[in-house]
Amino acid sequence: MTAFKRLDGRKPEETRKMEAKVGVVPNADGSAMFSFGDTIAIAAVYGPKKMHPQHQQDPEKGTLRCNYSMLSFSVSERIRPGPSRRSTEISKITEWALEPILMIKKYPNMVIDVHINILQADASTRCAGINAAALALAHAGIPMKSLVSSVSIGKLDKQLVADVNKDEEDWEEGEGATDIPITLTPRGEITHIQLDGKITSQELKEAIELARKAGKEIYEVQKKALKESSNPEKK
Amino acid sequence: METSKLTGKRIKEYLFQGKRFDGRNLEEFRKITIEKNVSKKAEGSARVKIGNTDVIVGVKLDVSEPYPDSPNKGNLMVTTELLPLSSDRFESGPPRFPAIELGRLIDRGIRESKFIELEKLCIKEGEKVWSVFIDIYPLNNDGNLIDAAGIGAIIALKTARFPKYDEETGRVVYGEFTDKKIPLSKDIPLIITTHKAGESIIVDPTLEEEDVTDVRVTIGGSVNGLIFSLQKGNSKELTIEEMSKILDFSEKARKKVFSEIERYLN
Questions:
Q1: Domain ranges in chain B?
Q2: What stretches in chain B show pLDDT beneath 70?
Q3: B219, closest residue in chain A (CA to CA)
Q4: Which listed residue, of A205, B51, B66, B244, carries a Cα 20 to 30 Å from B91's Cα?
């Protein structure tokens, strides 16, 4: 990597400081917090429980229902509370990112609700949300094939970087900023990918590789959080 | 009506052998038919048919306040209403996820490509800018609404003319058109969705085929290989190799679709 300077002094492949903790919402069947620097997400799982209304029940498999939402004061300019087009889309994207790892066939006619709230936002909120949600599902004891780890790869001018923050997201020099949130299983299967910006396919392939590397680190942080929760001494 | 399991299974078997019910190969689009200026009231419009899929796209222009974070740029709004008339799967009422997603996919493809030169739509910084509304309505849904909407949107934008603007009152005089066109760049965003069904990768599925596909990736990109927007849809994982294959597949499809619609872009 060349001497590319990130605004906060990180190396290109370096994520912000990550923290993860499970069991943050005692009422929930499973819950977790995940943060990338100043981006903080919490997720709570309720269920599996009987799906209501009844006509939405699926006799072949359970339903995963995610709800992503940002607190009104999580960003500088207040956002109106309640669902928006953006949050509706991210909720669905989150369902798609998580469903492949859940053994959801075990729960016909049931629903698993995952509520994700962004307490504080400094970009990459959907990724933090997905990381928290994966932890919360594991904490709830839902049978899963694996976890997923999510990170947003950025292309700032020509340089690929891991875990973009808000200042980087607004990068305007050169080719500007391209934002690529990616979610992967530990085996490197992509369960979610989005992109906004301008990039060649070759660069995109490199971005996916970078996500894979960053994903491994995130996975370690997630695993550690789960282990700590099952260790009664640390509770 | 949902596609039956038996039909679905058969479709997958066919795809596995590289065949489709309608005789196309896996990377082939259905016939694309384009009609420009289908609405006299809209500033720009187009009707796009891909096989039996039929979509109408209208562009309206209005003068309004800019967004606080872009005081010197025009606004862009893309909305979709999935008309119940076009399919027994759509119901009336407030937009649900599929309608929201379709609008946002087209919005991002166009916005990120910088196809519309929004900074040229500023009338008075921080006070008055032109707003471009792109509204998408399917008239018949036989699969691949996204790509049809994407083609419709760029052609409708190309055909659009500004309405008369009264500088004294600061209002648009609707019904009177000028010759002025929307400032558009050369980076035409082609929005193409590639699907994976079983092990097969295909483009332009019919509704029946769409029912059996496991995952789709919508890519907005230029004919010369740049990618502006991308979104994976549906809950099925993709390996990195499959993703790579989809990127190549999609790039080819963009070239093909462009060559078919190019003559309508003037």
A1: 5-264
A2: none
A3: A195
A4: B51
pLDDT tens, position by position, A41-67: 999 999 999 998 899 999 999 999 999
Does A106 have pLDDT greater than 60? Answer: yes
Say what the pLDDT of residue A2 is. Answer: 54
**Which CATH fold would you assign to the domain A18-234?**
Ribosomal Protein S5; domain 2 (3.30.230)
User: How much is the pLDDT for B167?
Assistant: 87
pLDDT at A82 over 90: no
By C-alpha distance, the chain B residue nearest A212 is: B240
Q: Which of residues 4-23 of B touch A (CB under 8 A)?
A: none
pLDDT in tens, A142-200: 999 999 999 999 999 999 999 999 999 999 999 999 999 999 999 999 999 999 999 99
Q: How far is A103 from chain B (nearest CA, A)?
A: 13
**Which residues in chain B are closer than 8 Å to A88, comparing Cβ atoms?**
97, 100
CATH number for the B5-264 domain, one of 1.10.240.10, 3.30.230.70, 2.40.160.60, 3.90.1150.10?
3.30.230.70
Residue in A86, A188, A195 closest to B227 by CB: A195
Provide ipTM, 2 decimals.
0.78
Examine the pLDDT at A232 and tell me if it is beyond 60. Answer: no
| Residue from B111, B114, B227, B255 whose CB has the most chain A CBs within 10 Å, to mutate | B227
**Subunit contact B235:A89, Cβ cutoff 8 A:** no
Whether A235 shows a pLDDT value over 60: the answer reads no
Q: Minimal Cα–Cα distance from B167 to chain A, Å?
A: 32
Q: Which residues of A lie closer than 8 Å to B, measured between beta carbons?
A: 64, 77, 85-86, 88-89, 92-93, 95-100, 180, 185, 188-201, 204-205, 208-209, 212
Residue of B236, B240, B243 lying closest to A100 (CB–CB): B236
Predicted pLDDT at B92: 81
Which residues in chain A touch residue B244, judged by CB atoms under 8 angstroms apart? 205
Q: A39-78 burial, b if ≥16 CB within 10 A, otherwise e?
A: bbbbbbbbbbeebeeeeeeeeebbbbbbbbbbeeebeeee
What are B37-53's pLDDT values in tens digits?
998 889 999 999 999 99
Q: Any idea where the domains of chain A sit in the sequence?
A: 18-234
